[in-house]
Amino acid sequence: MSHTVTVTRTTTTTTTSAIIINTGFLKTWPGVLKFFELILGVVVVGLVAYYKNTYIKTDVYLFFLLMAVTFLIGTFLLLLSCLVSISTASILPKTIYIFLYHLFAFLLYLIASIVFLIEVDKIRNSNTYEPLFAAGIIGLIISVLYLGNTIFGYRSYKGL
After folding, report:
1. What is the percent of the chain where pLDDT is above 70?
2. Spacing of C-alpha 112 from chain mean position
3. Which listed residue, 27, 37, 40, 91, has the most CB atoms within 10 A of its CB?
4. Could you give the CA distance from residue 63 to residue 80 in angstroms, rounded to a whole number?
5. Does a structural domain hold residue 14?
6. Nearest Cα to 108, choosing from 76, 73, 135, 70?
């Protein structure tokens, strides 16, 4: 006995507009360092912007604030792109960009923090001395975090 069978195939394509967060990136050392760079950067910018002292040279103050804001924005964008894109989190660290970004961030933040601390030390009797000194010290800590990410970026770029 023979039967006739008709097979119908339907292909359905669905798209989603949901944003998937790559939380696994925050479990890596570069992700943790970037997160703390971001948090401490917000603290530094907040302190320096709020406790502006007229006795500090304007160029030193602006250089420190400029470095803090610049690398705060850059680190935020790097962290955000690695959190919302799994492919970015895996491809970007293998490029020379991550190494160079963190190397220049380390050097410029370190220089800005040292010069800022030297200027802040001259205003010991001011009521804004302690918050500005804390901002300078946090700037040094952030530069050490950037050094750590520089090392990770170099090792990732070289495939070590």
Report:
1. 92
2. 17
3. 37
4. 25
5. no
6. 70
Query: Domain range for residue 143?
Result: 23-158
Q: What one-character-per-residue DSSP string does 3-40 give? A: ---------------PPPP-GGGGGSHHHHHHHHHHHH
The pLDDT, as a whole number, for residue 10 is 58
Q: What is the token pair recorded at 33?
A: 């360092």
Residue 11 located in a structural domain? no
Q: What is the pLDDT of residues 135-158, one digit of tens each?
A: 999 999 999 999 999 999 999 999
* Closest to 152 (Cα-Cα) out of 94, 109, 105, 113: 94
Residues 132 and 48: their CA atoms lie apart, in Å, by: 6
Domain count, the chain: 1
